[in-house]
Specification:
This protein is α/β, with parallel strands linked by helices. The chain folds into 3 domains: 5-100, Nucleotidyltransferase, domain 5 (2-Layer Sandwich), CATH 3.30.420; 113-207; 209-342, no CATH class. Helices cover 55% and strands 13% of the residues. The chain has a 5-stranded mixed beta sheet. It has a two-stranded antiparallel sheet with strand order 6-7. Strands 8-9 form a two-stranded antiparallel ribbon. It starts with a strand and ends with a strand.
Length: 343
């Protein structure tokens, strides 16, 4: 009999398939090599295919969708409860097949090639920024061993290195001066790479109408707008704005029992990169809130007066996430006068 629902455990070289028919009877258990996957599914009647949202999942989802299959991606943490006994490829495929058939299961939206391109830009840029920070810390640490103390800001390092190299009275040896020049060139190269990717993001933000609309929200610039557009897409995988905020980890965690609600700090679940961008953008808005008198600024100033400024920044990031969902799903631009999206 033909399988109506298939669970596919992804891998680099060896894939595991588990399929059931309309009566939930197992009709397919097979191992496939990578070169066999597409020919196998080309011969399969149209069915529902479930996969974990892991490396390569979006590529395979697009390939199977072109063949006419209904493809569903599931977050790995939602598949784990369905794994029986020991963990292996066959049990994983069976668990995916079971999970994809649950009526209330949450699914991950399939990304387009353009979304993956932009996410690649952001991931490379983020790694370069981390490498640059590590390089700055290495330079400061080495200089401190020779008695040269430089402030932590990266601009201070850029200005201080030439002065230190030209100072003949600081006691630095010729060998260390050569090493320091190599570190300076590494820092220059990292700056150059980051600037190149910033230009890529700026161009994409100007050409993408979705990113342009998201930038109408105070606290969201080109980097945050393009990152949100790439990660969230049209936002229709979320029922409401709060679901997007919860996915970003900007809502309180819970530890409730016996009918008593106990809320914790923000859950910090989901994409930490997006959450960081939204909170940093909120901090920038918070610094200038005293010069404005619109309803949103008055609300933010009130929160900052009652609570810590970091609490106010997270509250604004949460509000911005909800506004982003409204703009993605309903269209229009942000209206600062009313604090809502207008078509």
């Amino acid at each position: 009999m033909n399988a109506t629902r298939i669970g596919l455990d992804l891998a680099k070289l060896v894939f595991q398939v588990h399929g059931v028919d309309r009566d939930e009877r197992v009709v397919l258990k097979r191992q496939l090599k990578r070169s066999q996957v597409l020919p196998f599914f080309e011969k399969q009647p149209v069915c529902k295919i479930g996969m974990e949202a892991c490396a390569g999942a979006h590529y395979w989802a697009r390939q199977f969708a072109q063949l006419g299959h209904e493809v569903k991606l599931i977050a790995p943490q939602f598949v784990k409860p369905y794994v029986k006994s020991q963990k292996n490829d066959a049990n994983d495929a069976e668990a995916i097949c079971e999970a994809v058939g649950r009526p209330n299961m949450r699914f991950v939206a399939i990304k387009t090639v353009a979304q993956q391109d932009m996410q690649a830009v952001h991931r490379i840029r983020s790694e370069l920024v981390k490498s640059r920070t590590a390089k700055v810390n290495q330079i400061r640490g080495l200089l401190a061993e020779y008695g040269e103390i430089v402030p932590a800001r990266i601009e201070q390092i850029r200005r201080a290195i030439p002065d230190i190299q030209e100072d003949a009275s600081n006691g630095l040896t010729p060998l260390f001066r050569r090493l320091l020049e190599g570190l300076r060139l590494d820092l220059v190269e990292l700056d150059h790479r980051v600037d190149e990717l910033d230009q890529e993001i700026a161009v994409a933000a100007k050409e993408d109408p979705v990113a342009q609309r998201l930038q109408s929200v105070p606290g969201i610039g080109p980097i945050t707008a393009t990152a949100l557009a790439a990660a969230v897409g049209d936002g229709r995988q979320f029922k409401r704005g709060r679901d997007l905020a919860a996915w970003l980890g900007l809502t309180p965690g819970q530890h409730s029992s016996g009918g008593k609600d106990h809320l914790l700090g923000i859950s910090k679940r989901g994409d930490s990169y997006l959450r960081t961008l939204l909170i940093h953008g909120a901090r920038a808005v918070l610094r200038a809130v005293g010069n404005k008198n619109d309803p949103r600024s008055r609300w933010l100033a009130g929160v900052a007066a009652r609570r810590h400024k970091n609490v106010a920044a997270v509250a604004l990031a949460n509000k911005n996430a909800r506004i982003v969902w409204a703009l993605l799903t309903r269209g229009g631009s942000y209206d600062s006068a009313h604090g809502m999206a207008t078509a």
